[in-house]
Amino acid sequence: MPRQHRSAIDPGGVTFLRVSGKLTAARMIERGIIGIVLLAVATIPLILRQTGVWSGYPAWLAWSVPGVVLASVIWEMILIPRQVRAIGYAERNEDLLIRGGIMFHRVMVVPYGRMQYVDVTMGPLERMLGLSTIHLHTASPGTNAMINGLPAAEAARLREQLSARGEAKLAGL
């Protein structure tokens, strides 16, 4: 059994369900594409220096810009699997718990009675990998409750379950 990610702010006795491991691949593809674009832009000073257009531009600076970009992309690629493993959600009787974060742990509690509607979205890369994202819209405009990387079938089940529980809690008011 894989080691469960536990935090001091996790409520006791709650088992969090993890999102799909395919989210790791999706994030690596997204960050990889962004990293390639940034690296291409960061090498422009180096190319201009080599062609003589910016001959007065210091060599160390021309090499350091792509180096910093490359180092940050590699660092992010190392962190992505841990970030995905830290994401979890748990359905309880009265609310939904959403957990995330490596360095800054976060547990969000979304009461079913506060849910106004539930969105399920699927971008092109998510569709290719069979993943979905659930957005929970509540009475508070500042709430940004979402769960990335759910398998499409689980997202559909969760949307129906959360909608039904939300309606039941609102009817009880």
Written account of the structure:
A hairpin with a 6-residue loop joins strand 6 and strand 7. The chain has 173 residues and is α+β, with helices and mostly antiparallel strands. The radius of gyration is 21 Å and the shape is elongated. Helix 1 (22-42) runs antiparallel to helix 3 and helix 2 runs antiparallel to helix 3. It has helices spanning 22-42, 44-51, 59-86, 124-129, 152-171; strands spanning 17-18, 88-91, 95-100, 106-111, 115-121, 131-138, 145-151. The strands form two sheets. A four-stranded antiparallel beta sheet has the order 1-2-3-4. The protein has a three-stranded antiparallel beta sheet with strand order 5-6-7. The longest helix has 28 residues, at 59-86. The chain has two domains: 22-83; 87-171, Roll (PH-domain like).
List the helices and strands and how they pair.
Elements: E1 17-18, H1 22-42, H2 44-51, H3 59-86, E2 88-91, E3 95-100, E4 106-111, E5 115-121, H4 124-129, E6 131-138, E7 145-151, H5 152-171
Antiparallel strand pairs: 1-2, 2-3, 3-4, 5-6, 6-7
